[in-house]
Structures are given as C-alpha cells and as structure tokens.
From TrEMBL:
Residues 186-197 have a biased composition (Basic and acidic residues). One of its GO terms (cellular component) is cytoplasm. One of its GO terms (molecular function) is GTPase activator activity. Residues 1-75, 167-217 are annotated as: Disordered. It comes from the Eukaryota. This is Rho-GAP domain-containing protein. InterPro entries: RHG40/28/18_ubiquitin, Rho_GTPase_activation_prot, RhoGAP_dom. PROSITE patterns: RHOGAP.
C-alpha cells in the first residue's frame, strides 16, 4: 500500500554555522526512488496482538471483558480519587521540593544546545562539524522522506540562528569608538537564516488539533488498520490535509474512549520486533525513529523539550535509588542473560503468583510499617537469598514495586522523552497516538524498554483477572500513570489545569501502553526499509569513495536491483546451521513464492530427526533430537543480523537482501524469568 504523499523528492539541506568559521555545505540532491514492491507487499493475513487474536477466535469467552470496557469509556470517581491519592503519595514520599530547582536548571540551558544534542542523537553531527564531508551527510540523508528532511532542516536552521545570536558581539562602548585597535569582527548578518527558519516553519500545515475529527466516535467500527509501510509523519501530512477539508470539519461528533481492535496488515517480510535486530541495526533504528518522531511532533504542533536529569546524591540502598543500568550491570554478573533487574523480577514473580487475584491490587495501600520493614529486609538479604516471601502481603509487594519505579534516579521513560510521552495525551486521533508511542518505545534505551515491557505484561495480567480483583483497564491505568509520568527530577504538567481532564488524559496514555503493548514493541516496515537502505549506502560509500562516480553507481545499483529474478520458479539456497559457537553443517533448501521461514525450519527439524547427533537439542524417547528454540536469521548484506518471523516469505526476503546469508541459530534469551 502506498500513500500519495510518501514518494521521495529532491531536497537540499542548508548547513549549520560554526562559531569559528561560517561556511556553506554544498547542496545535496537525491534521485527519486523507484518503488521496491517486494518488502512492501501486504500479506492477506493481518497481524494482531495475541489479546486481539484471542478475542476474535473466542468472542463469547471474552464478552465480559469487552462489555466491561465498553461500559467504562471514562474512569469512574473511584479511579480518579485513586489517581490523586497516588499523586499525593508521590509528592509526600519523594521529596518534590526539588521541582522548582529543576525548573530553574532547565531554563538555564544554553540556547541551541538542544538542537545540537538532537543532531548528535539523530546521527547527523557531521552537519555541524568543521570537517564534515558531503558523502558523510548523504549516507543518512538519502534515506529520509521529504517531511523527515524538512524536520532536519528546521533543527539546522534553529541551531544556526542560535549560534549567530550566541556569537553576536556586545554593544560597543563609547570609548571603543575612538580606539580602532580594539574593534571586534562581527559575524555576517543572520537575516537569511531567520527567513529560512521562518519559511520552513510556515511550510507546515497549520490545522488546529481541535478541528481534527476523531475516528473513534459513537458508531465507529471496532476494528482499525495500522499501516506501517509509510512513514508516520507522511501519514500525518495526508491526514491533516484531509481533516482541513470543509466536509470533514462539519462532521465532528462526540469522542468515544473505547479502544478498538487494531489490525496491522502483515508485510511479506513478516513482523520485526525490537529484540530481533542486532545492536548496530537498532542504533540506526533509533536515529531514524527520532527524526520521524520529531517531524510528527512538528506536524501536530506538539512543543516538547528534552529535559536534563538533575544531579542526585548516591544512595546507600542496593535496590532503591540505583540507576537502572548500574543495577542491571551488577545483576548480569550473577545471571548473565537477565534483561531486567533481579529485584523487579522477584517482585513481579511474587505478584503474578499471589497478587493478580487479590481484590484492589495496586489500588489498596499496604501497611506503612510492614512496607518499611519488608524493604529493610529485602535490602539486607535479597542478594543472599535469605528472603522468605511466604508471609508477604500482595499489597505491600505492590507498594514496593511502585516505589521501586518512582525511586529510580532517572525516570523509567527517560528524562529526554518523559515530556513527549506525556504530550501524547494532547493528540486527538488514536492512530497518531499509537504512531508516537511506537516511536518513543523504540527510542528508549534497552534496559528501560525491557523493564517497561515486563511491567506492562504484569499490568495486562492484572486486567485480565478483573472478575476476581475488580481492577479494570481504567483502574490500573489511573493508578500507574502517576508512577510513570511524575518524577521529582523532571518538571511535569501532569497535574496542571482541569484536574479531571488531565488525570483522564494521563491515564489514557497509560491505557494505550497496556492495551497495545505487543504492537508498540514492533519495528515499523518503513524503518526497516530505511535501515536496509542506510546499510546499502554505507557499504557503497566505503567501497567507492570517489564522488565523480557516486551517481553512476547509484543508478547501476538501482537497475541491478530491479533486474533481480523475481519469478515464481524454484530457487535453491544454502542455509548454514549454527547451533553453538561453531557452524555444525549446512542445508540445501529449494523455495518458491509460497515458501516461508517456518517451512525451512520444519525441513530442518525433519533432517535432525534423521541425524540425532547433529548439534545440541532435546532428546526424544525414540532417540531423535528436536530444536524448539531455533530460528532463521538473515546475516549480512543490507542488514546486520535479523531474527526472522516464521511467516517471512523467503522469495521476498531473497529479493530484498540477496547478499545476505541464511543461518539457523538458537534464539537469543529474551525472557525475563527467574
């Protein structure tokens, strides 16, 4: 599926100005990309979260959950009271007196510093460096869409303008007029940059959010398609243009807060989850996600500023107030494959066994004296294994879980993106909320992302036991929202304005995170395509550095890719088998247009039955060996390493990355179990 506004056009980026030397980077031109049909062809089988799939397959078994959610379109009075009670608990117990100090610190940030840090995080620091090369800039910029490139240009213009203001000389003293030897050199006039920045911002469609009609209204369908083949910012451009039409503005109706079943049409290359890519590829995903998220914020007129985490004294506790990365690093010395802190694993494991059926779990407060004693006991004896959980109250453990999240030195959602997470509440359209949350999840550091996912999985289990614990989705969301969106080190607008409205909006963002977590932890198809293109451009840059033949090589590469054999005749591919540190064999596999990764793995399993000594597997009673934890990976070519979805169509994979190898390996340990 292609959107008309998603085709890439030529653009040029104006350079940022250095304080030592003001120069102009040569304009970069890009050729229009021909559509590559293989990676973007939709499968007839849509992808939905396991919860949605269960609801579709067993509609009557989930009728109670669906009906309760329809009835609870808005949080009731008990939920709202619990929200503000939680806010008050956080303020009293977390020392919110530091908030005004952090506000002052945030105001003192040097002008242009945020734009400079943004360019560094987006992988575009060469645009503002003295020794940048056109080739360096072109590698990443050649993968961007027009709207993404305009977002980069606005940051460059803003950085240039702030740099000129910062280096503008002070007004001359009257004594300097008669002393020409002390005269100072002025930077060239900055009117051009000011006009350029103004024109760039003026090019954005100025459609107020209140005029954008919501799709989730009374009588709206309970299913919605979630397209990931086109950049989210390009989809927003189309949506805002359609929303500005008179016939759309006149059909506004009352907003409905029920959550539909979201279906993502599955690409023929399958679904890619965050744990499926190598660290080098995920770094590029984060850079591209930052650019697309920034472009989306510009289009939706969301003003979000990145905050710095205020300095805090080191804590003496081994569990509370310890940076998440430090805590995880220490835990990995005892358990190398762990992805979230062992202490949080223990709390979640206990609550999943004894707390999910407890009435009012998360909402009912525990005994403060018992909580204090339990915390002291855990801090002293947790790592020695001398803690007994038999007499622990689920409410006390839930209170310690929330306190663990609040007491992190930096917010779990990170200081850089906490305000952006909070700003999602101001977006009207559900699809754009999910777009923004999807990009924000990808931007989180790996420890934060894994810890957040473990927390959301537990909260989803609490909601699924609503009949016993009386905690529906709204109740859980209103309780947990303050613990995630309020942090003493970061100024927050969560509690400003109309209390009921702000509490409801904050809880709605939390509700989306819980309900659509499986969708939010996937990598959109357009980002995967951009990562592949980025790797291709980087490889060509190192192989052919001569600028005079750069355009010719790009044309040759495009032509050769278009001429790739995409017929339906069977092809043969050698697949490596690597079940350990060494390659243990190969497998010849013939595939056609209908062949999938699961078919190849099935053939491998059959071969392993005939060769029980091949590799490390589980021994069956008949002496055969199975490999339940195996997966097919693509390695090299235009990707680093990619664990493939079992539904990946192999012919499309071959056409998308003919230079990569196929390797059968054991899946990485992504679990969080004890």
């Amino acid at each position: 599926m292609q959107f008309p506004g998603a085709r890439l056009n030529r653009f040029r980026l104006r350079p940022a100005l250095s304080p030592a030397k003001i120069r102009r980077v040569k304009p970069l031109s890009r050729k229009k990309k021909d559509r590559n049909p293989s990676p973007t062809e939709m499968s007839v089988e849509p992808w939905a979260s396991p919860q949605d799939q269960a609801a579709a397959e067993h509609p009557y078994s989930t009728s109670h959950t669906a009906s309760s959610e329809d009835q609870e379109q808005h949080p009731d009075k008990l939920c709202l009271d619990s929200f503000w009670s939680e806010v008050e608990t956080i303020r009293q117990g977390s020392g919110y007196t530091d908030l005004e100090c952090s506000r002052r610190d945030s105001r003192q940030s040097e002008e242009g510093e945020q734009e400079e840090q943004w360019l560094v995080d987006a992988g575009l620091s060469t645009l503002i460096s003295e020794d940048s090369e056109d080739v360096d800039n072109a590698v990443l910029l050649s993968t961007l869409t027009r709207t993404q490139a305009e977002a980069v240009q606005r940051r460059l213009d803003s950085y240039t303008l702030s740099l000129r203001k910062r280096n503008k000389p002070a007004p001359r003293d009257v004594r300097d007029i008669f002393n020409p030897s002390i005269s100072k050199t002025r930077l060239p006039d900055s009117h051009h940059s000011e006009d350029s920045a103004h024109n760039s911002m003026a090019s954005l469609p100025k459609s107020p959010l209140s005029a954008v009609p919501t799709e989730h209204q009374r009588g709206a369908p309970k299913e919605e398609f979630f397209i990931t083949d086109v950049a989210y910012c390009e989809q927003a451009v189309i949506f805002l243009k359609q929303a500005s039409l008179p016939q759309n503005n006149s059909q506004r109706r009352k907003e409905d807060c029920t959550l539909p079943r979201v279906i993502c049409p599955k690409c023929r290359l399958g679904v890619t989850r965050v744990q499926d890519l190598s660290h080098s590829d995920m770094k590029k995903v984060r850079q591209l996600a930052l650019i697309d998220m920034t472009a989306l914020c510009d289009l939706l007129e969301l003003e979000v500023k990145r905050q710095k985490n205020s300095k805090r004294k080191n804590t003496e506790s081994p569990l509370y107030g310890v940076p998440l990365a430090t805590l995880l690093e220490n835990d990995q010395k005892m358990k190398p494959n762990t992805s979230i802190p062992l202490y949080m694993q223990a709390l979640l494991s206990f609550l999943e066994k004894k707390g999910v059926d407890s009435e009012g779990i998360l909402r009912v407060p525990g005994s403060q004296s018992r909580i204090k004693m339990l915390q002291q006991n855990l801090e002293t004896n947790f790592y020695s294994g001398q803690v007994s959980w038999d007499d622990v109250s689920p409410n006390d453990a839930a209170a310690l879980l929330k306190k663990f999240i609040r007491e992190l030195p930096a917010p779990l959602l990170t200081p850089e993106y906490l305000n952006t997470f909070s700003a999602v509440r101001d977006i009207t359209e559900l699809r754009q909320k999910l777009h923004m949350l999807n990009l924000l999840i990808l931007l989180l550091p790996e420890p934060n992302r894994n810890t957040l996912k473990a927390l959301l999985e537990f909260l989803s289990k609490v909601v699924s036991r609503e009949r016993k614990n009386r905690m529906n989705l709204w109740a859980v969301a209103t309780i947990m929202a303050p613990n995630l969106f309020l942090h003493k080190a970061i100024p927050s607008r969560l509690t400003e304005g109309a209390e009921k409205g702000h509490a409801e909006k904050a809880a709605d963002v939390m509700r989306l995170l819980i309900r659509y977590q499986d969708l939010l932890w996937t990598i959109p198809n357009f980002l995967m395509s951009q990562v592949r293109k980025l790797n291709e451009n980087s490889n060509r840059r190192y192989q052919f550095y001569d600028r005079r033949i750069k355009n010719l090589l790009r044309k040759i590469h495009t032509d050769s890719r278009d001429k790739t054999d995409k017929n339906t005749s069977e092809l043969c591919r050698t697949v490596k088998i690597q079940l350990g540190d060494l390659v243990s064999g190969t497998l010849e596999y013939q595939f056609n247009i209908n062949s999938r990764a699961s078919d190849l793995l099935t053939q491998f399993q059959r071969q392993s039955l005939r060769s029980p000594d091949n590799g490390k597997g589980k021994m069956r009673r008949n002496g055969s060996v199975t490999y339940p934890d195996c997966a097919l990976f693509e390695v090299g070519g235009n990707i680093g390493e990619h664990c493939l979805d079992p539904d990946t169509h192999l012919l499309d994979l071959f056409n998308s990355n003919s230079g990569g190898e196929w390797v059968i390996k054991l899946k990485p340990n992504a679990g969080r179990g004890l």
